[in-house]
Every structure is written in C-alpha cells, then in structure tokens.
Design brief:
Helix content is 55%, strand content 8%. It has two domains: 227 residues, Rossmann fold; 82 residues, Tyrosyl-Transfer RNA Synthetase (Orthogonal Bundle), CATH 1.10.240. The chain is globular, with a radius of gyration of 22 Å. With 338 residues, it is mostly helical. The mean pLDDT is 95. Helix 4 packs parallel to helix 13 and helix 9 packs antiparallel against helix 12. The structure holds tryptophan (TRP). The site of tryptophan has 12 residues, from strand 1 and helix 7.
Length: 338
C-alpha cells in the first residue's frame, strides 16, 4: 500500500480553544489514525517568533499545544510528532530556498499584503512593524513541507496560498538544479466545521470570542453562559440556524441528535436549558482529555522526551534530503571532488 505523506504544522501561539479543536485538532487526529496515511504533525515554533516577541508566551503556548494534542489522543508512535526547532535542517533549507525564491512571489503573500495595507490605512510607513520574518515566512513554510517530501498539506483556506508558494518554490528549484523535491498540494476540507464564537462571529483568538478547550469544567460552563443569545423567553420558538449555541452543539452531535435539538429549539427550549445541554455535551467529550492534559502540563519532561524522540527518529530523513540539496546547489565536500 502506498501511504500518502500528510504534513501539517501548528503555529505555537495562543491557547487552544473549541474552534481549534473542532476545526483542526479532532479531524487531524482522526486522519492520523488511518492506515493509508503517513502523518507528520509539528509544532511550528519558529513561526511563533513571527507573531510574538514575548518569550514566556512562546514557551508556554508550545507546552500547552503539545500537551493538548497528546491529551486528545495523538499517538506519537503512529504519527511523526516533533518540534520544528529540533530539526535544524529545516532552517538550513529555508536559507537555501530563500536564495532561489522570487521576491516578487513574497510580495504577493496575503499576510504580508494585509500588514502593508493596515499600515497604509493607519497613515504609517508601509514597512512599519513588518519584520523580515513576516515577509519571508512562506519560504520557511516551504522548507517545513519540502524537507519531508510531503504530498498533502491539510490547511485552512487562509493557508492555501502558502502551500501553492511552496509548490512554486519547489518546482523552480527542481527546474534549475534537477529533480529534488516532491511537489506538495494543499488539501482543504470544504465541510470543515468553522465554529461560531461567543458573539456569533467565527471563533477566533483575534476576535476575543473564544471558549477555551481546557481549563476547569466550571470555566467551560462560565464561557458557555456568555454565548450571546436573544431575548426570547422560554416557550417561544427559537431559530436554530442563527444560534451559536445550536451551531456549537451541532459540532458535538450526530444527525439524528441534531434534528431532535432543532425541534427542541423550534418548540421553545429555554436558553438556559440549551446552554446547559451544550455544556454537558462538550464536557462529556473533553473531560477525559482534560485530566490527561492537566497531568501532562504537570509533567513537562514527559512531553519533552516525546518530542525529542520524534525529532531524533526523523533527523536521518531530513539530513539525507538536506545533503542532496547541498550537493545540488554546490555546497560540497572538497574531499569528494567537483
Ligand atoms: N502557517 C501555518 C498557520 O499559521 C502553520 C504552518 C507552519 C504550517 N508551517 C506549516 C502548516 C507547514 C502546514 C505546513 O496555520
């Protein structure tokens, strides 16, 4: 059986919330358990440096994100689970690619363009607060992907462009230096659940409307109680399709249950009761993982050992690829001849 090599990275900034869980973590763990998939999942901690210059935030979120994935059932024996910064070949490759990637390609990156536009709108210098890390970040991301010859890269819509850039960068390199890299493609799950946040907009750290994934049951309950609803009284019919409570509940239920809940809304379920059911449902699903999360957060050396092992197992592969790349571009041992 040919196993498809599937690779994805998680930027280690921020504390995981329910939206991350439903949209990214749960499906990725399910996919990593398939026999026909050779899964690579890594903590993109060099990417975190683009977004945060607070060392404690960077360190803490790496720990939280690693513990989250492990607690939720990611099996490090079955999935390559590692930290980007433990694979030095990634940053070496990134520089080599930087020397052949076109600047014009980077100029077109959405994240960079959005930052320039925000500066212009604020009447600032166009380059204000834009680091070279932000500008060249698609090249680092290309290195992440190409170093392990990934075929498929599951990403959210906002990242498709970056995977296409990785493909362009690889094709250009192959054309000039000879066949070296596998051309990756972005895989976007069209029915990926996008969870609504407390205010009904997409749940996102940047909107400050998230429900934290872990924390105590009480904190979960409190957050759920803050979900915005309307003023309809118990007994008055409520529209499930415009309700964040219903939408979030749905992400934790099957079709038949969803239908039953829809009917309950339409026949006047009270908001307090709907939120109580939402809390119970979410809590039932995540409570076992919460205990394991707390245990792992209290035992960081255990997580550290898992990550170090993950990187050690992969280094022969990244070293071999980098060796090929170095030879291709002319960085060769003098002893080996021309
Ligand atoms: N940039 C991605 C994000 O912000 C994370 C990421 C880094 C990534 N390197 C990657 C995703 C390589 C897929 C493949 O979501």
């Amino acid at each position: 059986m040919t196993r498809h090599r599937v690779l994805t990275g998680i930027t280690t900034t921020g504390t995981p919330h329910l939206g991350n869980y439903v949209g990214a973590i749960r499906p990725a763990i399910a996919s990593s358990q398939r026999d026909d998939v050779d899964a690579y999942l890594f903590l993109a901690d060099y990417h975190a440096l683009i977004k945060s210059h607070n060392p404690d935030v960077v360190a803490q979120s790496s720990r939280e994100i690693a513990a989250t994935w492990l607690a939720l059932g990611l099996d490090p024996e079955q999935t390559h689970f590692y930290r980007q910064s433990d694979i030095p070949e990634i940053t070496e490759l990134s520089w080599i690619l930087t020397c052949s990637a076109a600047k014009g390609l980077m100029n077109r990156a959405h994240a960079y363009k959005a930052a320039v536009q925000a500066n212009e709108e604020a009447g600032e210098d166009t380059d204000a607060a834009i680091t070279m890390g932000l500008f060249s970040y698609p090249i680092l991301m290309a290195a992440d992907i190409l170093i392990f010859n990934a075929n498929d890269v599951p990403v959210g819509r906002d990242q498709i462009q970056h995977v296409e850039m990785a493909r362009d960068i690889a094709a250009r390199f192959n054309h000039h230096y000879g066949d070296t890299f596998v051309l990756p493609r972005a895989v976007v799950d069209d029915d990926m659940a996008v969870l609504q946040g407390l205010d009904g907009r997409k749940m996102s750290k940047s909107y400050g409307n998230t429900i934290p994934l872990f924390g105590t049951a009480k904190q979960l309950q409190k957050a759920i109680n803050k979900i915005k609803t309307n003023l309809l009284e118990p007994g008055e019919p409520k529209d499930p399709d415009t309700s964040a409570v219903f939408q979030i509940w749905s992400a934790f239920a099957d079709d038949a249950e969803r239908q039953a809940m829809r009917e309950a809304f339409e026949s006047g379920l009270a908001w307090g009761e709907a939120k109580k059911r939402l809390f119970e449902r979410v809590n039932d699903e995540i409570a076992p993982a919460r205990d394991e999360y707390d245990r792992l957060m209290a035992n960081p050396e255990e997580v550290e050992a898992i990550l170090i092992k993950g990187a050690e197992r992969l280094r022969p592969q990244s070293e071999a690829l980098l060796d090929k790349v170095r030879t291709a571009v002319g960085l060769r041992s003098f002893a080996r001849g021309a």
